[in-house]
User: Which sequence fits this backbone?
């Protein structure tokens, strides 16, 4: 009998603290599940799209162009990047919250995985990867719609995609970490309660400068705000070094979230 | 596999209270014990799914604390509770489980065909798992554990819920695996199964090992060669029992019958008759592992 000793040598160094290549098996499993349920996969993409259409068709005619750093920007072009960021966030959160809870507490999918060479860190990294894939799919589809509607005017806009992936990673990881603390489905109402105001007030629909100073400071702390300014900067080609702070903020969320998730999965399932 | 003073605590509660055992390669080893004895807790520690809280454990010569993943890659586990992936088909359950072990796709497909055959689920291959019957799920769980061709197979009550045909099919399979050198670790509540399958076994009770040996040796050590079961009328149970107490090494009075533990059953029955007692029925049988089990762990329910 040849022992299957692929386990240890496959450790990829930079991600070693999170998991290993084995985490791709978790992604593979999700692909299998969604193969027969792709409708569910795309459903969450439409919400921000409808916002974009509604704004592009209607609101755009009432709100004149905005002055962003000295250039006139059509209102839809101003809002589109933040909706793309929201789209990436939604895509990542679906699997990181409801579906993760289901697998953790009800279907016991992770218990099965942990009887195989997979480790809790592999589960965490695998699910995170999947969240990023789903967020990335949403963002890409959204980007194509933006292109068709004529809001992609410069090559710089392509940078929206890596920004969206980072958003997805940040929200996916924190969403998963929070989910590991949930006790019942009711707890998810609280998540909704946090997400909706964040979506509406994170300078998504207007510049943060409309707020008084202290409120600006609060809004700037929200992760969606960081994603929105990053996305907007990329879309409009305003690449300021200060955006690196947003990148760092989101990257930190992703890493801390993933580490907590790995620990919690270990705690919950390997007792 | 070697365990010394192996212990598992959940908070204040001690599920496994320091047990020693050692299992050699190719052996088939059983864990018996009443509900709550700590069998599953022990299996989970051995399968590197639950860290031990005390003592020493080495599995396949490695330490589960540091080499859990490597050890698990060489283990097959049939958990007490089926944990199939309900969102997938029968076939895909096998396939993905193989993928978790990082096996090549072609190899898994080949093995899956044979394992589905073995589990008699070939016709259901494309069906979702959820509507399968309990026994079918059990068979699929067992088949799944074999997809990686493990060198150590851990089975936690593998045949609970299986019909006799499936049970015998599994026994055959386990025999074959054993002859190929696979190490088997089994828990069961079926004493005939333990007698059939295990080279050696331990009886656990309240987190401790209370006896250890081969099924034969345990019977010789803890029971007599034969057992006589006598039924007197309900009201004459006690009278009957007192009159013949001296005939047996041990006598046990149950609500519906009296058990005499003796070396020679027929001689004992003859003596009972000679003393003028007329039991409604009498049965002479060999001692079984069940007698040992009940002797060691008591007849009353634990909890
Ligand atoms: N995760 C846990 N947390 C707290 N207590 C636990 C946990 N798992 C098991 N126990 C306790 O440990 C004891 C031993 O349980 P275990 O499942 O090992 O018994 P068992 O011998 O497998 O019993 P059965 O024959 O019923 O399967 C039980 O009292 C059980 O309540
Ligand atoms: Mg058990």
Assistant:
């Amino acid at each position: 009998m040849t022992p299957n000793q692929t386990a240890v040598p496959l450790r990829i160094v930079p991600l070693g603290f999170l998991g290993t290549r084995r985490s791709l098996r978790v992604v593979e499993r999700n692909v299998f599940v969604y193969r027969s349920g792709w409708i569910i996969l795309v459903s969450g993409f439409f919400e921000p799209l409808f916002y974009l259409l509604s704004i592009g068709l209607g609101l755009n005619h009432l709100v004149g162009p905005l002055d962003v750093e000295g250039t006139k920007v059509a209102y839809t072009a101003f809002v589109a990047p933040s909706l793309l960021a929201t789209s990436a966030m939604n895509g990542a959160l679906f699997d990181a919250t409801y579906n993760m809870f289901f697998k953790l507490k009800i279907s016991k999918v992770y218990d099965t995985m942990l009887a195989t060479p997979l480790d809790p860190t592999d589960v965490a990294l695998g699910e995170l990867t999947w969240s990023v894939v789903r967020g990335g799919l949403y963002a890409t589809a959204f980007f194509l719609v933006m292109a068709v509607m004529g809001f992609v005017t410069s090559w710089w806009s392509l940078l929206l995609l890596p920004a969206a992936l980072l958003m997805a990673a940040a929200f996916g990881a924190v969403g998963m970490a929070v989910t590991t603390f949930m006790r019942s489905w009711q707890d998810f109402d609280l998540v909704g309660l946090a997400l909706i105001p964040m979506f509406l007030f994170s300078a998504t629909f207007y510049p943060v400068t409309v707020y008084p100073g202290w409120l600006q400071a609060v809004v700037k702390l929200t992760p969606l705000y960081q994603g929105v300014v990053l996305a907007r900067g990329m879309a409009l080609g305003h690449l300021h070094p200060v955006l690196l702070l947003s990148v760092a903020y989101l990257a930190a969320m992703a890493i801390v979230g993933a580490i907590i998730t790995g620990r919690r999965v270990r705690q919950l399932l390997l007792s | 596999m070697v365990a010394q003073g192996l212990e598992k605590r959940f908070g204040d509660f001690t599920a496994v209270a320091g047990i020693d055992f050692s299992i050699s390669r190719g052996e088939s080893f059983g864990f018996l014990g009443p509900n709550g004895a700590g069998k599953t807790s022990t299996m989970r520690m051995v399968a590197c799914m639950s860290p031990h809280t005390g003592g020493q454990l080495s599995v396949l010569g490695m330490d589960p604390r540091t080499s859990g993943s490597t050890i698990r890659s060489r283990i097959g586990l049939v958990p007490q509770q089926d944990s199939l992936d309900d969102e997938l088909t029968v076939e895909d359950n096998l396939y993905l489980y193989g993928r978790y072990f990082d096996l090549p796709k072609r190899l898994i497909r080949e093995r899956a065909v044979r394992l589905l055959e073995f589990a008699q689920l070939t016709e259901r291959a494309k069906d979702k798992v959820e509507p399968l019957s309990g026994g079918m799920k059990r068979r699929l769980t067992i088949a799944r554990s074999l997809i990686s061709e493990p060198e150590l197979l851990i089975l936690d009550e593998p045949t609970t819920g299986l019909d006799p045909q499936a049970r015998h099919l599994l026994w055959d399979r386990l025999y074959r695996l054993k002859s190929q050198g696979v190490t088997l670790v089994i828990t069961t509540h079926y004493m005939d199964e333990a007698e059939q399958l295990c080279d050696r076994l331990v009886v656990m009770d309240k987190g401790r090992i209370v006896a250890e040996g081969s099924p034969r040796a345990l019977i010789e050590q803890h029971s007599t060669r034969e057992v006589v079961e006598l039924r007197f009328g309900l009201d004459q149970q006690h009278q009957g029992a007192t009159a013949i107490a001296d005939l047996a090494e041990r006598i046990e009075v149950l609500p519906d019958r009296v058990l005499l533990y003796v070396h020679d059953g027929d001689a004992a029955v003859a003596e009972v008759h000679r003393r003028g007692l007329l039991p409604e029925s009498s049965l002479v049988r060999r001692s079984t592992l069940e007698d040992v089990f009940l002797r060691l762990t008591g007849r009353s329910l634990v909890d």
Summary: The first strand of chain A starts at residue 66 and ends at 68.
